[in-house]
Design brief:
The protein is α/β, with parallel strands linked by helices. It is built from 11 helices and 10 strands. β4, α3 and β5 form a beta-alpha-beta unit.
Length: 263
């Protein structure tokens, strides 16, 4: 992407820390101004090594699935022991796979052209799971589709919740400052990289901020998040990215600024 391609463009980045940092740097590298306003906080809800010990020293898994980069962040420690010695590693998308690889682990199951449960379930390695021991490392209260379908395919399923999502709390003064920047035209885009983030943004918005949201273009990674926004009464333009990957998000804004369309 060309340096300066987003000069004069302001983006409200709503990812939780530390994921927001990389996305902000990528936007800023092509000239955009970013404002961080996390919609959710990510916190650990279980120690993965304690979970492994609770399962038993002789437990082995044929397949271990990580459902997000946060699942890797809070759960990768299980891969340092004997638990994962013979397991195939699966990631729900490329960002999750990169997180695992950054910790020195080889990922062999990654969906092609997607980053969600539906995409992962289309992988041929997951077609036949009868009698296979499968561990899903995930966040508390996540989607149930993956687990339900793997169980239907015959997997002997275990699920570990290693983090939880709490809606972030912002001072009224901070929310009003963001609303003022949007009203002055200093912000043009707002990221909503998951349905949880979209819900957190809307649930916690002051009336001023909620009104300001309708002045922005919502940057989303797919149809599911776009539909969630529409269901919650957001009528502002939606700019779709190919995925929730940081580079795809920035590319979508560059493409839009060069004459792309919104939904």
């Amino acid at each position: 992407m060309i340096v300066g391609a987003l000069s004069g463009v302001g983006v409200l980045v709503t990812r939780p820390e530390p994921q927001a940092l990389t996305l902000c740097r990528l936007f800023e590298a092509v000239g955009a101004t970013t404002v961080r306003y996390p919609a959710i906080d990510i916190k650990p809800c279980a120690e993965p090594l304690e979970l492994a010990q609770r399962t038993g020293p002789d437990t082995r898994f044929d397949l271990i699935v990580f459902t997000s980069a946060n699942a890797v962040r809070f759960g990768h420690a299980i891969l340092g022991g004997s638990l994962a010695a013979e397991a195939t590693l699966a990631a729900i998308g490329p960002a999750t796979a990169r997180s695992l690889e950054a910790h020195g682990h080889r990922v062999t199951v990654v969906p092609e052209g997607g980053f969600d449960s539906e995409s992962l379930l289309r992988h041929p390695r997951l077609a036949e799971l009868a009698g296979k021991r499968v561990l899903i490392v995930k966040g508390l209260h996540g989607r149930e589709l993956l687990a339900a379908e793997l169980a239907r395919r015959g997997a002997e399923l275990t699920q570990w919740d290693v983090y939880r999502r709490d809606w972030a709390v912002h001072e009224t003064s901070e929310s009003d400052a963001v609303a003022a920047r949007a009203t002055r035209g200093e912000l043009q885009f707002i990221t909503a990289t998951s349905a949880d983030i979209a819900a957190g943004l809307l649930a916690g918005a002051t009336p001023k901020l909620r009104s300001a949201f309708d002045r922005l273009h919502w940057l989303v990674p797919g149809a599911r998040v776009a539909a969630a926004l529409r269901d919650q009464g957001v009528h502002a333009p939606i700019v779709p990215a190919r995925s929730a990957d940081d580079h795809d998000l920035v590319e979508a804004v560059v493409r839009f600024q060069n004459g792309g369309s919104s939904a």
